[in-house]
Backbone:
């Protein structure tokens, strides 16, 4: 089945220690998104890639970076995680990023910062 | 900018009873509206979406929603609740103008009482 895969499902890191979260997709979609979802809150868009074009949200901290080496993979790098970065990180994809399109979500990576 | 408001962060219904989850939107241009469901420790899954076709939209798992422009609402309903419906439900909005990102509501946690 075509899907969005996120690894690992749970990640524990130390305060200030860089961490990378991974997302891959077999849907061959052009657009990949990263969302941050804190407990009992709505998902918040961090950035997205349309193909290789990177689009950062204005309020996304510089501490968060992303890489998309090819169509299938996208990475979220947190350079110096703080306690406030503990959250569920959701990867999603869509075909062309148009407004009416469905976004397909992965299961998420829950990040714990000690 | 567009936004959605979900009334009731927690809703409890008895098994077999009507499910009604409320969503009101704010948008200066015609909106496109979505309902997503999130089961514990999982990503979001699309239930249904309104993209300016029929105002009554049928989705998966027996859910439906009606777009009411006069009330700026897009409430989600299901005639008979099942235990497996227990989850978090998010209403989301986007528009075909300017920043087209998906904006989520804060979610409603649905509990089913046996």
Residues:
């Amino acid at each position: 089945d075509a899907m969005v895969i996120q690894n690992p499902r749970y990640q524990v890191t130390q305060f200030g220690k860089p961490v990378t979260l991974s997302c891959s997709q077999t849907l061959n979609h052009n657009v990949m998104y990263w969302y941050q979802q804190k407990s009992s809150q709505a998902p918040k868009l961090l950035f997205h890639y349309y193909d290789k074009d990177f689009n950062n949200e204005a309020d996304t901290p510089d501490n968060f970076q992303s890489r998309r080496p090819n169509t299938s993979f996208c990475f979220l790098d947190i350079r110096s995680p703080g306690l406030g970065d503990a959250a569920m990180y959701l990867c999603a994809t869509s075909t062309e990023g148009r407004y009416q399109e469905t976004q397909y979500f992965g299961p998420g990576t829950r990040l714990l910062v000690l | 900018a567009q936004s959605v408001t979900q009334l009731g962060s927690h809703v409890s219904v008895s098994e077999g009873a009507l499910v009604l989850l409320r969503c009101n939107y704010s948008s200066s241009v015609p909106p496109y509206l979505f309902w997503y469901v999130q089961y514990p420790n999982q990503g979001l899954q699309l239930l249904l979406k309104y993209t300016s076709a029929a105002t009554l939209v049928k989705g998966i798992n027996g859910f439906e929603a009606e777009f009411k422009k006069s009330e700026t609402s897009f409430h989600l309903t299901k005639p008979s609740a099942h235990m497996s419906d227990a989850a978090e439900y998010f209403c989301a909005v986007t528009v075909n103008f300017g920043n087209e990102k998906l904006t989520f509501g804060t979610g409603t946690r649905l509990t089913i009482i046996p």
Observations:
- The interface with chain B takes residues 4, 6, 9, 40-43, 45, 48, 57, 90, 92, 97-100, 102-108, 110 of chain A (CB under 8 Å).
- The CA atoms of residues 16 and 61 of chain A lie 15 Å apart.
- The radius of gyration of chain A is 13 Å.
- Chain A has a mean pLDDT of 92.
